[in-house]
Amino acid sequence: xxxxxALLLLxxxxxxxxxxxxxxxxxxxxxxxxxxxxxxxxxxxxxxxGFMYCVNEARKLTPYVTLVDxxxxxxxxVIGTVSQGRYIxxxxxxxxxxxxxxxxHEFDYGWPMFEKFAGLLKSxxxxxxxxxxxxxxxIFKPYRILTYGDVKAAFVGVTTPxxxxxxxxxxxxxxxxxxxxxxxxxxxxxxxxASIQKAVDDARxxxxxxxxxxxxxxxxxxxxxxxxxxxxxxxxxxxxxFIDGHSHEVTPGLVFKNLDxxxxxxxxxxxxxxxxxxxxxxxxxxxxxxxxxxxxxxDEATVKLVDSIKERLAGTMTRKLTxxxxxxxxxxxxxxxLMRNAETNICNLVADAFLASARETPTKKAxxxxxxxxxxxxxxxxxxxxxxxxxxxLPFVNTMxxxxxxxxxxxxxxxxxxxxxxxxSGGFLHVAGMTYTIxxxxxxxxxxxxxxxxxxxxxxxxxKDVKINGEALDPEKVYKVASSNYVLLEExxxxxxxxxxxxxxxYMTDDDALAHxxxxxxxxPERYRTAQGxxxxxxx
Length: 540
Known about the structure:
Elements: E1 14-20, E2 30-35, H1 47-59, E3 64-69, H2 78-83, H3 86-95, E4 99-100, H4 111-120, E5 131-132, E6 137-138, E7 143-148, E8 151-159, H5 163-166, E9 181-182, H6 190-205, E10 210-216, H7 229-232, E11 241-243, E12 250-257, E13 263-269, E14 276-281, E15 286-292, H8 300-316, E16 320-324, H9 345-358, E17 368-372, E18 383-386, H10 387-393, E19 400-406, H11 407-417, E20 429-432, E21 434-439, E22 446-448, E23 454-457, E24 463-468, E25 471-472, E26 478-484, H12 485-488, E27 501-504, H13 510-518, E28 535-538
Helix pairs in contact: 3-8, 9-13
């Protein structure tokens, strides 16, 4: 077997062998290069130009090269938001993907735009479980068979049933609020397994020598177990390999025995093109998977295309989202940050946007939203508000999470945020869905370690009268909190939300949340002209 890409790798290849297939061997290696959860990361790491470089190198060694994407390509950065995913589709068409499966975030721009994706993509979509409930029929073909010499390989598409709650539920309903689209999900996983097995059996009956499932299902991180790839693989037969996505895990290969005690390998590349996946069916009929990274090569044609799209993006950044008759300042006349020791209108607006974005998921509605004062950078002036304004005010493009957090941890982190009051702190927390009081006459009881992380609270607390939706916060109760990954999970500004459990991961970026919220208003409401009194300050 030839060592494809051996000269490209600056880090060791990560491989796992699924063992011999029961099917015919091809006359030359079949190489399947795959991506998943790119989330608009067109040039963040390896980028699409790096991916295309791999494609070109593979084609020098074998004529049998297939390009696969396992979903979530259209959302995750402003290049997706502004174009509603169309710029990403343009790049994917230029690269020449052969097989594409929709992820849950392909629905984020609404069902009509999702249908446009299916038409705009030269490959189209495949999925064995996106169903029109009005007819009972599948929306797309469940699989596609490709021929490599005398050998046929079928690719079966699967989209997570979590799509309904991990996009916007109303997109799957009619005007009467009744669901008209479904993903064959049930609490046992039996419906999804049956749909996958039918597609596999039909593909085999049509002459497929190999069956590769391309799924946007996930493995272990924040996914529904009975809809996950590791749950499905041992409960099916006839699948040779499983190219996965959704959970952003870096998985060179996990091997499971199926119902016939044959090996099924599951693989996933992480997110934002940190790796390129490579599945090989060699001339002995053996399957191997590996993840490629650490190389410097880029395809120049793809570089030029991405650069040209970014130039177009710069022009569309001036597109109007809404109008405001008042300013949203972030600094005073002395060039001092306003929101780092005071409540401001821009903080109220962004916190409300975070909360609104988190309440579009009915089974995981957030109780409150938190925004750190250090997230803000530039004022939004009165007049037309554009995407550029949104990115200027929230330039870090953090991802949004919902976590279950004990009430006591919320109390502790409010203290951390208020510890420098009346001085300024980037960790000062602005809120939606709650109110609280800070008595800065009381010395801060917060004890930090040498990295400014919370050690404990010792003495009288200065944060008081904390209410969530009008009711006193219960330290023993668990609340659902929406905020950025930076605040909730990455110890940003010293915050350490003990006991936080992720229930909704990376559902959009913070700038997307703000853009989505404000574009629903023709003119921003008067309530945002000034701060709304969510935080009471006692200084003397």
